[in-house]
Specification:
Chain lengths: 791, 156
């Protein structure tokens, strides 16, 4: 490969000095003149009808500017996924009844947070309690309490607004509390099981965990008398936010400006609109004053959706030699009070692992089920770690029972580079086998496996999209040459810890062969940045990075054209090196970027030189005027999904103390095929980050809900890994070179977590010689498993 | 009843008019507009609000502002001197010791106090010193390296 100037290096973050001096502005740091503060009154009941709300006393409190209830806002519905088949089911404040403890019923705008809190106590809500349902499998039974009545959509759905033509959205009636379902099939499942020598069936249960982003959710909204809304939010991309704010407030999208903010961690949890964001905007419009809502940590735990709770029934058939012949999956997704992202999650639970194993006959069915609990959402590998935990646990059990080597068995079943998946996606780059071999070598699998009592080794796998087909998963970028020869790059990417500004600057500076500080990045401002869907489904580098690369190429081309005209030599004789435009080999005639800017203005009719680039994740997918091409169906899993998959293989070694159930991680090795690592340090950071998050998932993290109430809504009771909990973690980057990615790059931000969880979980079970079918694997559960083995 | 309190913040005398139950974090952020210290948990469990009071790291979200009267308060905003970043700040950038950066000001302040009392620390001691500063992004090791690097640098 080429010798890169910036790519595959680890330059410092271009915005590092802002972060370390405390001058990076997060939403909570934004303060505007005349700003009011908002607070939300929340339901104490998991399921109850709202009989009456009296706000008179609260309205009379000095300093209170406005009090609203769900009735004032009405049925303005929103959802993470809002399709004609699955129309939005949530309202910013409950209108008729509450469906989970913590659901908002009224909101206050006041001149201080203290006054707003006092006013909440003066609001009198009369509820009529209804029987709740908490267990999803109970909720699916006939006669269970109905969480939702028929949902009557009263606007177009988001997908219709994004251009998918459809018959008008239809009412949704949840039968047996089923909020959504999917069925993906290929091959012949019956024949696949017949061909198997050995069948294994198990049930796994994976709880919700919190994203626990360090920044508590906040919103600042400022509605201008001119009819424009300015907002500062904790988010992962402005398009979704401004779309929903505009739709819910019934105003043009272009009049909603999502300003650039630093975002204190997101991990998939800040994609779609939150009720408090709408309420902030709504109250700002009512009062014509800026308004801020900051959630407390307890509110974040109790009312912001954590990861999806899933029950996975899994049946796998294998030949004696370990070849997988068929797999049947049934996922029950306990969505909670609102459907949220469940249709996506049930589909992703299949498609994210599709590139891992070659399973010729497959049936994957999923059910989203309403319960009277906190609703749930995406978290770093949406649906991936749940399904991977089940599949990898079961494969280990199969290997144990058939006496197969766990490395060889997986190598035998992996897909291969160049394979086309059942939906048509191609594996143009595929480093998973190499990842396994390298990780096994690094940890010493063959020397160590089964050699020491209470020591265990475990393997985990994962794969992840590099952006997706759905919505307009596309991005554009502009790069403008200034008279000093420096460039301003405009991208819609959001900075939430991913280091996008630096990565995008690296890509542009690589194309233009100039120092990194020639590129100044302006990111994440919906009024300034061109279209960008956002940084989720791990499309940041693959989609937006490619748009940046093309914008830089466009600018380079324009610069060379002007240089050729200015020097009167053919453009083919010019090159850019080290920030100079050099004619042939004659260094003495070289032009600076600054010269080109001046040439454009003086000699080319004032041409300011602006490069433009755009990119779409799966170019062949489109819908236009009633025509569809290869658009994916969430329900049937048909159609194209993505253009490139990132892959991770993790191996963990642990030692368990049989007397206490305590586990010591000896080492976790993660081998990641992310294509070309644009910023090696950032890639290593992403891998490390997810390994540590995975340690939390395996050992202690769970949002505990009892009778609908979150029992551990603070950091004393919800433990996350600290600096003292970090074992030896080794990352190996397997650079497979993805031909369609910018400089060969693809995903890295989500798959390592799922791989780490499964590897550590399998290692624990290997060490104790017993299977634990759920997470987290606490000391108690490990002791219980050891006891059940001995009795 | 509000009362007037004289605070010394980053060497500057600042008079504020505050309620007796105002936390130091509220006063720093809302009255003095020093927003580097962050509120992440509001109950002293995560360290994002760490500032130094007479050189000792405190969780400013559970420290009353009035308790800090007459003491030297140091925040992240006071760390860089004469237009230059503090060596810890440089090391954090060099080592990619942050991702989202929300916990970084607090962690750097903890590290500063720690290096003052333990100028030649081991990695283990550094891990202990920042174990009250929760970071959800990085996995901590780059921060440990940054702090170690600063300590070694100071020795020279």
């Amino acid at each position: 490969m080429t010798n890169f100037r910036h790519i595959k290096k680890g330059p410092r973050r271009t915005d590092g000095a802002l972060i370390v001096t405390g001058r990076a502005d997060f939403t909570g740091d934004i303060s505007l003149p005349g700003m009011l503060f908002g607070k939300i009154l929340r339901s104490p009941y998991p399921h109850a009808r709202i009989v009456e709300i009296n706000t008179e006393k609260a309205k009379k409190l000095e300093g209170v500017k406005e009090v609203i209830t769900g009735k004032d806002i009405g049925y303005r519905r929103f959802s993470f996924i809002d399709t004609p088949a699955f129309p939005a089911d949530q309202t910013p404040l409950a209108v008729d009844k509450v469906r989970f403890v913590g659901e908002g019923v009224a909101a206050v705008a006041a001149i201080s947070e203290d006054i707003a809190v006092t006013a909440l106590h003066l609001i009198d809500v009369k509820y009529e309690e209804l029987p709740p349902v908490f267990d999803p499998e109970e909720a699916m039974k006939d006669g269970a309490p109905a969480v939702h009545e028929t949902i009557e959509p009263n606007t177009t759905t988001a997908w219709e607004d994004f251009g998918i033509p459809s018959t008008k959205s239809r009412p949704y009636k949840a039968v047996n509390n089923i909020s959504n379902r999917n069925l993906i099939e290929y091959g012949d499942i019956g024949k696949g099981f017949e061909d198997a020598d050995y069948l294994k069936e198990d049930r796994f249960e994976i709880p919700s965990t919190s994203h626990m982003a360090m920044e508590p959710h906040a919103a600042v909204a400022s509605y201008q008398p001119t009819g424009k809304l300015d907002v500062w939010l904790s988010h992962m991309g402005f398009e979704h936010k401004r779309f929903w704010l505009a739709k819910l407030l019934d105003m043009p999208i272009s009049r909603v400006r999502v300003h650039k903010t630093y975002v204190g961690g997101a991990f998939g949890g800040k994609i779609s609109i939150f009720p408090y964001e709408f309420i902030a905007a709504y109250l700002s419009r009512l009062t014509l004053r800026p308004l801020k809502i900051t959630l407390t940590r307890e509110e974040v735990f109790c009312v912001c959706p954590p990861s999806r709770r899933m029950i996975v029934y899994l049946k796998t058939g294998v030949k004696k030699d370990g070849t997988i012949t068929a797999q049947q999956v049934k996922v029950i997704d306990d969505v909670g009070a609102y459907r949220g992202s469940s249709p996506t999650a049930l589909y992703l639970a299949h498609v994210f692992r599709n590139p891992i194993y070659n399973i010729p006959n497959l049936k994957h069915e999923g059910y989203g089920v309403y319960t009277n609990k906190l609703y749930t959402t995406a978290k770093r590998g949406h649906g991936l770690q749940q399904i991977v935990f089940a599949v990898e646990s079961q494969l280990d059990m199969i290997c144990d029972e058939l006496g197969l080597d766990k490395v060889e068995m997986r190598l035998k079943n992996f897909r291969k580079k160049g394979d086309t998946l059942p939906n048509g996606d191609m594996l143009r780059s595929y480093g998973l086998p190499e990842c396994l071999e390298e990780a096994a070598k690094k940890i010493g699998w063959r020397e160590k496996y089964g050699k020491k009592k209470f020591r265990g080794l475990g393997i985990g796998t994962a794969s992840m999209f590099s952006g997706a087909h759905n919505f307009p998963f596309s991005s554009a970028a502009m790069i403008r040459l200034n008279q000093d020869g420096r460039m301003i790059l405009y991208t819609g990417q959001a900075e939430f810890g991913n280091g996008v500004d630096t990565v995008m600057a690296q890509i542009a500076a690589e194309v233009l062969d100039c120092p990194l500080d020639y590129v100044i990045v302006n990111s994440g401002d919906s009024e300034v940045s061109p279209h960008d869907l956002g940084n989720w489904l791990s499309g940041g580098v693959f989609v937006s990075g490619e748009a940046v690369r093309r914008a830089a190429l466009d600018l380079k081309d324009q610069m060379l054209q002007h240089a050729a005209a200015g020097l009167d030599i053919p453009v083919e004789d010019l090159s850019i090196r080290d920030g100079w435009i050099i004619p042939g080999s004659d260094e003495s005639k070289k032009l600076s970027f600054s010269d080109i800017s001046r040439y454009g203005i003086q000699m080319a009719g004032g041409d300011p030189l602006i490069g433009k680039g755009f990119s779409k994740c799966v170019p062949e997918v489109y819908f236009w005027k009633g025509k569809f091409n290869k658009t994916a169906s969430l329900s049937s899993g048909k159609g194209r999904f993505t253009e490139a998959y990132g892959l991770t293989l993790a191996i963990a070694e642990v030692e368990v103390n049989p007397n206490t159930g305590e586990v010591e991680i000896v080492e976790v090795v993660l081998a990641d095929d992310c294509g070309t690592p644009i910023n090696v340090k950032s890639v290593e950071g992403q891998i490390m980050s997810q390994a540590v998050m995975g340690i939390g998932d395996v050992f202690y993290e769970e949002v505990k809900i009892k009778n609908g109430i979150v029992m551990n809504p603070n950091l004393l009771e919800y433990r996350v890994p600290t600096a003292n909990d970090i074992p030896k973690i080794t990352s190996i980057i397997v650079d497979s070179y993805e031909p369609n990615g910018p400089f060969g790059a693809k995903e890295v931000g989500e798959s390592p977590r799922a791989a780490a969880i499964s590897a550590i979980a399998n290692a624990i079970c290997n060490a104790i010689g017993e299977r634990i079918y759920t997470l987290p694997m606490t000391g108690d559960r490990i002791m219980e498993a050891l006891h059940s083995k001995n009795t | 009843m509000k009362r007037s309190v004289l605070l010394s913040v980053n060497g500057e005398r600042r008079e504020v008019f505050i309620k007796p139950n105002s936390t130091l974090l509220e006063v720093l952020r809302d009255e003095l507009l020093l927003t580097g210290a962050k509120e992440a948990c509001g109950s002293g469990e995560c360290g994002a609000c760490t500032v130094l009071v007479d050189g000792k790291p405190v969780n400013s979200c559970i420290t009353l502002a009035m308790e800090a009267e007459g003491k030297a308060i140091e925040t992240i905003e006071g760390l860089s001197k004469e237009g230059k970043l503090h060596p810890l700040q440089e090391a954090f950038i060099d080592h990619h010791a942050f991702q989202c950066g929300f916990c970084t000001p607090g962690m750097i302040m903890s590290a500063k106090a720690f290096l003052k009392r333990s100028p030649e620390p081991t990695k283990e001691e550094i891990r202990n010193a920042i174990s009250g500063n929760i970071c959800r992004c990085t996995g901590y090791e780059n921060a440990v390296d940054a702090i170690l690097d600063t300590a070694v640098g100071t020795e020279k």
